[in-house]
Amino acid sequence: MFDDTRPIFLQLADRIADDVLRGVYEEEQQVPSTNELAAYLRINPATAGKALNRLVDAGVLYKRRGIGMFVAEGAKALIAGERQQGFVDRYVAPLLVEARALGLSTEDIVRLIEKETKEPTP
Predict the structure, then answer these.
(1) Is 25 in the same domain as 52?
(2) By the 8 A CB rule, do 12 and 5 touch?
(3) 10-residue block means of pLDDT along the chain (122 residues)?
(4) For the chain, how many structural domains are there in total?
(5) Which segments constitute the HTH gntR-type domain (predicted)?
């Protein structure tokens, strides 16, 4: 469910963003309310609300007054773009720094990646 590594509202916001990215919630579709999330996950409603508001602030969700929260148009692309940039920052950039230190060219790196993708993983 949730772990102790990060605040619950951040984990819940990431989980909802994952669901948007994977199509569980389509754009313009309503997401569960604060109270529904709190009851289902057995968490404080304030925590659930904080997660939803974080996604509203990020442009992933929007509020329809008196109706609920909905997935914003373009949310899937927004999440994908942010995660791609995170992938570059966490993995690609350090890989390139190490590759340069090892004297590998771009072609060498591409060749190594292609080789790894063709070999079966243990």
Answers:
(1) yes
(2) no
(3) 93 97 97 96 96 97 95 97 96 96 96 89 62
(4) 2
(5) 6-74
- For 33-64, the pLDDT digits (tens) are 999 999 999 999 999 999 999 999 999 999 99
Q: Are 68 and 17 in a shared domain?
A: yes
| Same domain, yes or no: 47 and 30 | yes
Q: E strands along the chain, which residues?
A: 61-64, 68-71
0.85 cut: is pTM over it?
no
Q: Are 44 and 38 in contact (CB under 8 A)?
A: yes
DSSP 3: -
Q: What's the token pair of residue 114?
A: 């292609």
Which among 64, 59, 66 has a CA at the least distance from the CA of 20? 59
Which domain does 87 fall in, by range? 76-118
34 and 15 belong to one structural domain: yes
Q: How far apart are the first and last CA of the chain?
A: 28
Q: What is the pLDDT of residue 89?
A: 97
